[in-house]
TrEMBL record:
It comes from Methylobacterium symbioticum. Keywords: Glycosyltransferase, Transferase. SUPFAM superfamilies: UDP-Glycosyltransferase/glycogen phosphorylase. This is N-acetyl-alpha-D-glucosaminyl L-malate synthase. Its EC number is 2.4.1.-. The lineage of its organism: Bacteria, Pseudomonadati, Pseudomonadota, Alphaproteobacteria, Hyphomicrobiales. The keyword Glycosyltransferase applies.
């Protein structure tokens, strides 16, 4: 693995930086970064890791938010990154963004989601290198109403699209245009921290040392299909007692989920704990992590479970095949209750299997998803000279992925 740049926030650049041709300018170059919101989500955490890795000798980032501020605003401001909230109607936001970047004159624009990719259209004609992102199953996170138009707008203004799953990368490549695959990174969890988190959460949930805890994490929205999660836990519980906990902000599904849990006889064995300060703490308390989603990009929660050494059972959504090795670092089951329940039950009944899978998953997360290395790759793609084509992007990424 090549040596990685280590400079951040005004420290001297790594020795290889000038050889890459990124440090030859007269001071840091402005870059406009955009995200839809700063709520407590996995995509927002990835953005924070990206900005934290910024070499401030080379880049001067400004973060634009097209929707709402939230949990990640303060940590990002603490990095010294200005945060600008765009207000008004969608057309007005577009006009205000164009006016702002005409003043800022960024050499690059990095949209962090397909939803904000259309803002690249505001930069056409300004000579700005425009990088977009696809962090879900291609266009699945775009509004259903007018999705075909949204889909066209999400790619039309881009110089380069970055995908966090190979499946989406292949789909975009088939449509033409330059695209690159960069997986998500995940921070390692020190053993002492993991043990403290596990002890605290299991005490909070009233769990005995031998009780099996199945955990799910995500916003309570239809996409995450926590109804499926409940069905799986209920099916496993017919033969083996297990406890379960779901963490995530309720966006309208909680009443139905509570009713379903009651009908399935899961009370009091199921805990809906709401939004938590750091979902990794709850994940460390788990014996099994269950992903029940209908579609995803590269689910951060699965990577976080792997980093915690918790074996995963997952539906075969978009990038799961990129991160879970079936039977080795977890189980990739179907979308049906029986297949998922069979995998969960197998783990619940075999402590040695849980340990072996968890250790293999932790090692894979550390090897393939180092957040510093992957953030460095993304920063290289922001350079207009290095990533003007798919071939150029691949040449950049060969050093980092």
């Amino acid at each position: 693995m090549p040596e990685r740049p280590t400079c951040r926030h005004g420290r001297p650049p790594a020795s290889g930086t000038d050889r890459d041709g990124l440090g030859s300018g007269a001071g840091p170059r402005p870059i406009a970064v955009m995200i839809g919101q700063l709520s407590q989500g996995g995509s927002e955490r990835q953005l924070y890791l990206f900005l934290a890795r910024c070499d401030r000798r080379l880049w001067a980032p400004t973060l634009y938010v097209s929707g709402e501020l939230g949990f990640w605003e303060a940590p990002i401001r603490a990095l010294g990154v200005p945060v600008v909230l765009l207000t008004g109607s969608a057309p007005l936001k577009l006009l205000r963004f164009r006016a702002a970047v005409r003043r800022q004159r960024p050499v690059a624009f990095f949209s962090w989601s397909s939803y904000t990719n259309p803002f690249a259209l505001a930069l056409v004609g300004l000579g700005t290198h425009r990088v977009g992102s696809f962090r879900n199953s291609l266009f699945s996170d775009l509004p259903e109403r007018g999705r075909a138009l949204w889909a066209r707008a999400s790619v039309a203004g881009l110089s380069l699209a970055v995908c966090n799953s190979r499946e989406t990368h292949r789909a975009l490549a088939a449509r033409g245009g330059a695209s690159a695959y960069v997986p998500n990174g995940v921070e390692p969890i020190p053993a002492a921290q993991a043990a403290d988190w596990r002890r605290a959460w299991r005490e909070r949930l009233g769990l005995g040392a031998e009780e099996i805890l199945v955990v799910g994490v995500g916003r309570l929205v239809p996409q995450k299909n926590f109804a499926r999660f409940l069905d799986v836990v209920a099916r496993v519980g017919r033969d083996r007692p297990v406890r379960a906990a779901i963490a995530g902000a309720d966006l309208g599904c909680l009443p139905d989920l509570r009713d379903r849990a009651a009908r399935l006889g899961l009370d009091p064995g199921i805990a809906f704990v709401g939004s938590v300060p750091d979902a990794r703490a709850l994940i460390c308390a788990a014996d099994i992590f269950l992903l029940s989603s209908d579609h995803e990009g590269m689910p951060n929660v699965v990577l976080e479970a792997m980093a915690a050494g918790v074996p995963c059972v997952a539906t075969p959504v978009n990038a799961i095949a990129d991160i879970l090795r079936h039977g080795e670092t977890g189980f990739v089951a179907g979308f049906g209750t029986e297949a998922l329940a069979e995998a969960v039950a197998r783990l619940a009944g075999d402590a040695d299997l849980r340990r072996r899978m968890g250790e293999a998953a932790r090692a894979q997360a550390a090897r393939a998803h180092d957040p510093a290395r992957l953030a460095d790759a993304l920063w290289r793609l922001c350079d207009p000279g290095a990533a003007r084509s798919a071939a150029g992007a691949d040449a950049v990424l060969e050093k980092y992925t």
